[in-house]
Design a protein that fits this description.
The protein has helices spanning about 5-25, 65-80, 95-110, 130-135, 160-165, 190-200, 205-210, 230-240, 250-265, 270-280; strands spanning about 35-40, 45-50, 85-90, 115-120, 145, 175-185, 220-225. The chain is of the alpha/beta class. A 7-stranded mixed β-sheet has the order 2-1-4-5-6-3-7.
Length: about 290
């Protein structure tokens, strides 16, 4: 072998070593036993375990009984190995959409002694869903992939990755995975974006069809609407009883309504914020689960 060939091989070896150092160590397989809840970190291709999830007991979520039961039934069927649908939870802010997903997951695992996983994907990481699905489908685990506050803005093409993940392409979505998402928008797109597409396209209906059809990939649409005063006070009563807050119902309701008036809204989030304030004033710690 000539000296020039040897030199080329040495240079190629140095380049290969440098690229290997830049790439870093190979990603480790997830430790599925570390937790029931994980957060997807696509940059490192890791599932980060969440050992103390931020969630409330299912019994404390009030005012959404019908959608609660539908979501629970769908999730339970999936967890037990039966057919189930992807779910879009949409509607009013602060009405417990994400809290309900987390509470239902915990309740079913506890009731049936299962180890179904809940994997949160951040909105900005939607494009990496195919990689995540490859990891999950080979694990032998059943998993709910969850994206909170999902929506898309003008010129955002990440929705195409989500459509492909929901449909599964040629291979099909893994039977061991369901996708749950929450959004304030039923069609995941702002009305102004849809109207702009219609006004600038040669065929307005076709221009917006591809984007609107994203929500059609969810077999279940569960709507959350602003709660009544009765539902709001039921939430307050449930929290007060659970945490054993020493206050009369008359004072509790009076203060809760004043709190809602100052916030200009009634919702599950507003009820919880009031309870945190009240418990702090009463010097009562709040331990959720």
């Amino acid at each position: 072998m000539t000296d020039s060939m040897n030199e080329l091989l040495r240079q190629a070896s140095r380049i290969a070593d440098a690229l290997e150092r830049l790439a870093g160590p190979a990603p480790q397989p997830p430790d599925w036993d570390a937790a029931d809840c994980f957060v997807w970190a696509p940059a490192s291709r890791r599932l980060q375990p969440v050992r103390a999830p931020n969630r409330v007991a299912l019994s404390l979520i009030r005012g959404v009984d019908r959608v609660r039961d539908i979501l629970h039934d769908n999730t339970e069927r999936f967890a037990l190995g039966f057919p189930a649908n992807n779910v879009l939870l949409w509607g009013a802010r602060g009405m417990g959409k994400s809290s309900l997903v987390k509470a239902v997951h915990a309740d079913i695992n506890r009731t049936h002694g299962l180890e179904m996983k809940l994997i949160e994907v951040h909105r900005e990481d939607i494009a990496s869903l195919p990689l995540l699905l490859d990891i999950v489908k080979d694990s032998g685990k059943r998993a709910l992939v969850f994206c909170d506050d999902l929506s898309f803005d003008h010129d955002d093409t990440a929705y195409k990755s989500l459509k492909a993940a929901l449909d599964g392409g040629l291979e099909g979505r893994p039977d061991s995975v369901l996708f749950y998402a929450t959004s304030n928008r039923r069609h995941l797109l702002p009305r102004s974006m849809m109207e702009n597409e219609q006004s600038t396209a040669i065929n307005p209906s076709e221009a917006v069809e591809e984007k609107v059809s994203l929500s059609d990939r969810f077999g279940l649409w569960l709507g959350f609407h602003k709660c009544s005063q009765e539902d709001y006070l039921a939430m307050i009563d449930g929290y007060a009883a659970h945490f054993k807050l020493a206050i009369t119902q008359e004072d509790l309701h009076r203060q809760a309504l004043e709190w809602a008036t100052t916030r200009g809204a009634r919702s599950g989030r507003v009820a919880w914020q009031f309870i945190q304030d009240l418990a702090g004033r009463l010097r009562v710690p709040l331990t959720m689960m």
